[in-house]
């Protein structure tokens, strides 16, 4: 799995991604990223594209989860 963050243009609804919520420390090693399907894409930000998942959680995409 690459550490390349996707751009907002590369994301689509229904894509499974790992996100961190805005109030989490992105640099912190003890934060578990949340995994879910994209419902809404808000746009690119320095922390990564901001999205809302289908479960209602909003955060910044860290990576796309590829089907193995």
TrEMBL record:
Pfam families: DUF2196. InterPro entries: DUF2196 (IPR019240). This is DUF2196 domain-containing protein. It comes from Natronorubrum halalkaliphilum.
């Amino acid at each position: 799995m690459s550490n390349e963050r996707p751009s907002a243009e590369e994301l689509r609804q229904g894509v499974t991604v790992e996100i961190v919520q805005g109030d989490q420390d992105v640099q912190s090693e003890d934060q578990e990223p949340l995994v879910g399907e994209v419902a809404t894409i808000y746009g690119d930000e320095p922390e990564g594209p901001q999205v809302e998942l289908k479960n209602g959680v909003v955060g910044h995409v860290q990576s796309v989860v590829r089907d193995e």
